[in-house]
Amino acid sequence: MGYTRNTSSVQWRYFENIKNEYDVIVNDDGSGESADLVGLKVMDDGILLALIHAKYSASGDPGARLKDLYEVCGQAQRCVRWKHLNLNYLYHHIKRREERWRARDCSRFLKGTVKDFAAIRDRSRTMPLKFHVEIVQPGLSKAQITDEGLRLLGSTALYIKKTTMAELSVVCSA
C-alpha cells in the first residue's frame, strides 16, 4: 500500500472490507513489520488484537502456489511474538514507525490515531488481550489447494493455537 495508500493493493482492498470491524487499523507493512494490517477493537470482555498478513500473488490467476503460501504462513507464525511482548511493546513499535512516516506527511493509521492506540494500550492493563491472526491471500484458490498446502495451513494454525491460544483465519479465492 505504501505511503500513497495504493487502492489497488491487497492491503487496501482488505482494509475496505474490515474498516467497520475495528476501532483502530494501522498499515504496518514494510521491513520489520508486525503485520501488514494491525486491527484493535475494545470489546466488553477484552481487547482484540488482530494481525493480518495480506499478500499479493506471484500470478494473476488464483491457484495453489506453495511459494506464495510459505511466505505468508511464515509471517503468520513469526507474528506470535507480538502477543507475548504485550500491547505496550507493539504500541511503541507502531509509534516509532508512525513518526518516520509523519516526517513525510504520511500516516500509517488508516482508522483512528496514535492517541486512540495509546488509550487502548492503557485499557489493556486491566482487560484481557484476545489475539487473532489472519492470512489474506487472493492468489490462493480454495478449489485448487493441494494436500501440501493444507498441511502447511494446518501446521501454521496449530502453532498459533498452541503458542497463543489464538485462531488463524484464511481468506482466499473460491
Can you describe this structure in just a few lines?
Strands 4-1-2-3-5-6 form a six-stranded mixed sheet. By secondary structure, the protein is α/β, with parallel strands linked by helices.
Describe what you observe in this structure.
- 41% of the residues lie in helices and 25% in strands.
- A 6-stranded mixed β-sheet has the order 4-1-2-3-5-6.
- By secondary structure, the chain is α/β, with parallel strands linked by helices.
- α2 packs parallel to α6 and α4 (87-102) packs antiparallel against α5 (114-123).
- The protein is globular.
- β2 and β3 form a beta hairpin.
- The longest helix has 18 residues, at 147-164.
- The mean pLDDT is 93.
